Write a sequence for this structure.
């Protein structure tokens, strides 16, 4: 038996925030990060809420949210007891908010107390993790990053409003855009994919191919912003149903130890995983064709895809290996046994088309470090 899950309801486009007026929100708990308050992005939400709505804001979320941030936010949420919870931000505030709701449910289950019903709305401000439509939450604990998965964390409503992306700096457009591409590609080659997830993944890949560089170069242009936001959401629906792959497991592990942005880690790793995934050769070829890449006769579609990824990374100033960004080699080498253990434990690993033994994994890690 296979399942394709469709939730939440998605409201998208320029006026999509107006949907908030249709809910009779009495007490609203907003989880966000401080930058989004400074940038006044939160005002767009506050201005739509009714004057009667009581609001509490928890803004102590930083990139790669920790278990401590989630615990603190959950305590504030429980004390306030809202009927609606809004997560506003990139993957970090959305994942942190999911964590708060998830651990609240766990406590209720353990204590056998009546379950609280909180309507959960996710408003992404990056494009992005797709977290607004996934049942995943990635939580950091010291130098470890763990991906939790539970359908209870799926939002009830996702609002895709392109006006939130106007303030994104170009390096975040680059990193988060490459995260979307990694989601869509890993979904399309996943061992757990199906025809539904494939359709979403391919549409996302096509939108990325046609819009990411344009969006990076013209961040104020609505059309590109909107298309990349939709691509991010489509990729989220895809991988929520197909799982991801070892690219993400390595990104979680390396990102946690060396404090790298999630999208940048994925972008650095991607060419080496595509190269190593010999079992997905035909799927990569399909992706190259869908991206309308020029495959000369007898040429390998997978190599063409790797070249394309390296080209767009170069345009967006993303380095091709960890050595360039100054990660200490001795520390990297010493961490290898721990990294391998974490990569094997990550829930994304089981979706990867190839299974790698330790020797192969070490070779891949060295390529990611040295770029060759
Ligand atoms: N839940 C999932 O399915 C899923 C999938 C992939 C990644 N993740 C996780 O999500 C996190 C990464 O999320 P992210 O890449 O969206 O970044 P993020 O939420 O960590 O934000 C990165 C930076 O961008 C800033 N920012 C966000 N929106 C902005 C805007 N509109 N204008 C200006 N600045 C803005 C934030 O303040 C922050 O400084 C990681 O922890 C990653 O592991 C989750
Ligand atoms: Fe990701």
């Amino acid at each position: 038996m296979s399942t394709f899950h469709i939730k939440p309801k998605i409201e998208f486009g320029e006026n999509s925030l107006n949907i908030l007026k249709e809910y009779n929100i009495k007490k609203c708990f907003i989880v966000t990060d401080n930058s989004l308050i400074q940038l006044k992005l939160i005002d767009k939400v506050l201005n739509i809420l009714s004057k009667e709505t009581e609001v509490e804001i928890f803004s102590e979320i930083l990139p790669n949210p920790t278990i401590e941030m989630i615990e603190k936010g959950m305590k504030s949420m429980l004390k306030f007891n809202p009927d609606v919870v809004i997560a506003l931000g990139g993957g970090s505030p959305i994942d942190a908010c999911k964590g708060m709701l998830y651990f609240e449910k766990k406590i209720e289950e353990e204590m056998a107390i009546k379950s609280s019903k909180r309507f959960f709305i996710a408003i992404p401000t990056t494009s992005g993790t797709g977290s607004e439509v996934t049942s995943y939450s990635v939580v950091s604990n010291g130098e470890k990053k763990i991906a939790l998965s539970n359908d209870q964390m799926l939002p009830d409503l996702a609002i895709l409003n392109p006006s939130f992306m106007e303030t994104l700096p170009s390096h975040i457009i680059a990193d988060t855009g490459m995260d979307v591409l990694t989601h869509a590609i890993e979904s399309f080659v996943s061992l757990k994919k199906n025809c539904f997830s494939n359709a979403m993944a391919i549409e996302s890949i096509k939108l990325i191919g046609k819009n990411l560089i344009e969006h990076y170069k013209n961040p104020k242009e609505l059309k590109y912003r909107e298309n990349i936001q939709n691509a991010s959401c489509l990729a989220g629906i895809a991988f929520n149903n197909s799982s991801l792959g070892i690219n993400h497991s390595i990104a979680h592990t390396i990102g946690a130890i060396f404090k790298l942005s999630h999208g940048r880690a994925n972008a650095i790793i991607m060419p080496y995983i595509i190269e190593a995934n010999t079992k997905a050769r035909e799927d990569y070829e399909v992706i190259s064709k869908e991206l309308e890449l020029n495959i000369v006769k007898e040429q390998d579609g997978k190599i063409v895809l790797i070249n394309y990824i390296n080209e767009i990374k170069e345009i967006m100033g993303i380095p091709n290996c960890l050595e360039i960004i100054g990660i200490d080699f001795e520390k990297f080498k010493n961490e290898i046994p721990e990294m391998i253990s974490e990569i094997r434990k990550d829930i994304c690993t089981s979706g990867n088309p190839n299974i790698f033994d330790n020797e192969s994994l070490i070779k891949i890690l060295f390529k990611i470090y040295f770029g060759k």
